[in-house]
Specification:
The complex is a heterodimer. By secondary structure, chain A is of the alpha/beta class. Chain A has a domain of about 180 residues: P-loop containing nucleotide triphosphate hydrolases (Rossmann fold, 3-Layer(aba) Sandwich), CATH 3.40.50.300. Chain A is about 30% helix and about 25% strand. In chain A, the strands form four sheets. Chain A has a six-stranded mixed β-sheet with strand order 6-9-10-3-11-12, sandwiched between helices. In chain A, strands 2-1-4-5 form a four-stranded antiparallel β-sheet, covered by helices on one side. Chain A is globular, with a radius of gyration of 19 Å. The two termini of chain A are about 35 Å apart. Chain B has one domain: ABC transporter involved in vitamin B12 uptake, BtuC, CATH 1.10.3470. Chain B has a two-stranded antiparallel ribbon with strand order 1-2. The radius of gyration of chain B is 23 Å and the shape is globular. Classes of the chains: A alpha/beta, B mainly alpha. At the A-B interface, α2, β8 and α4 of A face α11 and α12 of B. The structure holds adenosine-5'-diphosphate and magnesium ion. The site of adenosine-5'-diphosphate has 11 residues of chain A, from β2 and α1. The site of adenosine-5'-diphosphate (ADP) has 11 residues of chain A, from β2 and α1.
């Protein structure tokens, strides 16, 4: 198998006394969609935020393209070519679509913002994504519907020619047609050679696009397997019980019940 | 869903029917732009409209009920009176944008002015050095406030209330109980009592209008050339026309002799005006054309999103207070130029209310993320008009306090109601 683009080894993360991630190993491969599944509260979003550099790790290694890297914040992670679509989208309602897409990485002709260039690029990216009618790319994000906001958040992530895109429940707020478009996009990104991480509760979606499935159970990795080697039912068992016949955490792990 | 597809669409971009194909690049006609604007206003995005209407009402009331309000001398005086309030209100804008408040901006302005005055009177420093010292004093105050708010996490309301009290102590210590420092340096005092020569005034006014027109037309041409979102051409022309009428009209007004004494003509634009205009241009540029300004709005709009976008939120929050207190010091110097002295009470009392009030009255939101530098100027003129006209009507200071407090409360209500409407309509 090819070498992972991104690899986390033995990552632990606690919030005060709440130990959320236990010795998590996680890998993202180029050209593959890795589905990250797990029950609510399993620690999926926390893992994403650790990767994004929003939360520090208590212990564990962070390797990018095989080499250990030091990441100290979202800027470092973006610099590596890792983009994240957060579950809560993280858009500024008072800014327009273009301003949101370039937030923190504005194009400028020193020291003035290059609005023309940003608007043109934003429009180009949005046109390539295709979701819903928007009156104008200069419209404030506050006026957008849930699906439109989701599109903007995704467009923001694919704008930067990144190597890895992580999407935290990107289809949760979407209708059937829009979900279809996001799934197509996920597949297209992977086919372009990017490493894609998709978090979703919908098993049909997961099996449709994923190459690998990583299941989290109470903050532990219950399984990390090729999608072709597990069945729908097994994944559901991994999510709900942390184990299934041939996969999963050993019987009665010492602290699985916390 | 049919729509007028712009003819200049590049063939390479393939738009699926359900995508951004409807994304309009032009607002269409002037009438459509007007309708859009009305919809925005109805949706709660009122900007400075209430303040401008309020100003009109005030002018009508004071004009009808007093004899002296509409004299040329009084209106020129009103302008000079408004300048320090406008600058102080502009100082508050960055802090309000990030969703914080600075109750100490008034006394910070007094402290800055005291430092400047003492540097000239006691230490014989040249005026530029004294002014820089005053502004630096403001910056240090802002740095202290910002560090306590952003780093320690103390609510800005508490930190700046403490500074409001403590800085009054500092001023008493610097100037002495019951004392005051003269502020009669020729250049600085001249800002308030001297006027731009008539010819120079005209040249500058025409230059400003020409520069704005050139910039607006250039921007429009580039937007057309690159097929970007743009207002209808009629609106661009209308904006230029409005600016020309305001700038040239005011210049014409000020350039008429307003003296009662035929032997001593008083004519020309007061020097305060260009000072305010320059600060307004700089602040507008900073807030709307630089990444720094964009990040201020982002921090006020959604702090967590800003943080995830890699913006140094701590730095932005500290800098907002530094900017505020530094600019407040400039306002203090202008106020001292107007009154000719700095006393321990300078910047206290009513000024606290003016500082926050003017920006909010002008349309800057108390909830963060919304506001412009010009809001401060518009709000400042409203408050100065109350301050100037009310004593002509009722010469009791209780009335002034009551009315000013009422106006601020009114502006804050408009702000809160607009916000509720916006979240309902999503404008
Ligand atoms: N900032 C935080 N502070 C304290 N606890 C947190 C924080 N973020 C997440 N948690 C806890 O970590 C656990 C995992 O949360 P999360 O990663 O959001 O789960 P998931 O995305 O898999 O539903 C939950 O029990 C949640 O309460
Ligand atoms: Mg989650």
């Amino acid at each position: 198998m090819t070498e992972p683009l991104l690899e986390l080894r033995g990552v632990n993360k606690s919030f005060g006394v709440v130990h959320v991630l236990h010795d998590v190993d996680f890998a993202v491969y180029p050209g593959q969609v890795t589905a990250l599944v797990g029950d609510n509260g399993a620690g999926k979003s926390t893992l994403v935020k650790v990767i994004a550099g929003i939360y520090g790790r208590d212990s564990g290694d962070y390797l990018f393209e095989g080499k250990p890297v030091n990441v100290h914040g979202p800027r470092d992670v973006a610099g590596l070519g890792i983009e994240v679509v957060y579950q809560d989208l993280a858009l500024c309602d008072n800014l327009d679509i273009v301003q949101n897409m370039f937030l923190g990485r504005e194009l400028r002709r020193w020291p003035v913002l290059d609005e023309a260039q940003m608007e043109a690029k934003a429009r180009e990216t949005l046109a390539s994504l295709s979701v819903r009618t928007v009156k104008s790319v200069r419209q404030p994000v506050a006026s957008l519907s849930g699906g439109q906001r989701q599109t903007v958040a995704i467009a923001k992530a694919v704008l930067w020619n990144s190597k890895i895109v992580l999407l935290d429940e990107p289809t949760a707020a979407l209708g059937v047609a829009q979900t279809r478009q996001v799934l197509d996009l996920v597949r297209r990104l992977a086919d372009r050679g990017l490493g894609v991480v998709l978090i979703s509760h919908n098993m049909t979606d997961v099996f449709e696009v994923a190459d690998r499935i990583t299941a989290l159970y109470l903050g532990r990795v219950a399984a990390d397997v090729p999608a072709s080697e597990v069945s729908h039912r097994e994944v559901v068992e991994l999510i709900t019980a942390g184990r299934s016949e041939s996969h999963g955490i050993a019987e009665s792990p010492t602290s699985a019940t916390i | 869903m049919t729509t007028e597809t712009p003819e200049t669409r590049p063939a390479s971009a393939t738009y699926a029917d359900a995508d951004f194909a409807q994304d309009s690049h032009r607002a269409g006609t002037l009438r459509e732009a007007a309708r859009d604007y009305l919809n925005r206003v109805r949706g709660g995005d009122m900007g400075s409209l209430p303040a401008l209407l309020g100003l009109l009402v005030l002018f009508v009331i004071f004009g009808l009920t007093t004899d002296s309000f509409f004299t040329n001398l009084n209106l020129a005086n009103l302008t000079v009176q408004a300048a320090p309030i406008c600058v102080l209100a502009m100082a508050l804008v960055p802090v309000l944008l990030i969703g914080e408040i600075d109750l100490s901006a008034g006394v910070a302005s007094g402290t800055g002015a005291a430092i400047t005055a003492l540097a000239i009177v006691d230490h014989g420093q040249p005026w530029p050095v004294a002014v820089v010292a005053g502004i630096a004093c403001g910056a240090v105050i802002g740095l202290a406030i910002g560090a306590m708010v952003a780093r320690l996490g103390i609510p800005s309301f508490v930190v700046t209330l403490s500074f409001f009290l403590a800085l009054q102590g500092v001023m008493l210590r610097l100037i002495g109980q019951g004392g005051s420092v003269r502020f009669n340096h020729e250049v600085l005092r001249g800002l308030a009592i001297k006027n731009v020569p008539v010819t120079l005034g005209w040249i500058c006014a025409v230059a400003i209008v020409a520069a704005y027109a050139a910039l607006a037309l250039f921007t429009y041409r580039r937007q057309v050339a690159r097929d970007l979102a743009r207002p209808p051409f009629g609106l661009v022309v209308l904006r230029i026309a409005v600016l020309a009428v305001v700038v040239l009209g005011l210049t014409a007004y000020f350039n008429v002799n307003r003296s009662r004494n035929p032997f001593f003509p008083i004519e020309g634009v007061p020097y305060m005006v260009p000072v305010v205009v320059v600060i307004l241009l700089l602040m507008t540029f900073l807030l709307s054309r630089t990444a720094f300004g964009r990040h201020l709005y982002a921090v006020g709009g959604n702090r967590e999103a800003a943080r995830r976008a890699g913006i140094n939120v701590l730095y932005m929050r500290i800098m907002a207070f530094v900017l505020c207190s530094s600019l407040a010091a400039v306002a203090g110097i202008l106020q001292a130029a107007y009154s000719g002295k700095v006393s321990p009470g300078s910047g206290g009392g009513n000024v606290l209310l003016y500082a926050v009030g003017a920006a909010v009255i002008g349309g800057t939101s108390l909830f963060g993320g919304r506001g412009r530098a010009i809001d401060g100027v518009i709000g400042g003129v409203v408050l100065a008009t109350v301050d100037n006209g009310l004593p002509l009507l009722i010469d009791k200071s209780y009335a002034n306090y009551l009315v000013t407090g009422g106006v601020l409360l009114l502006a804050a209500s408009v702000d809160a109601i607009s916000r509720r409407r916006r979240s309902a309509t999503g404008v």
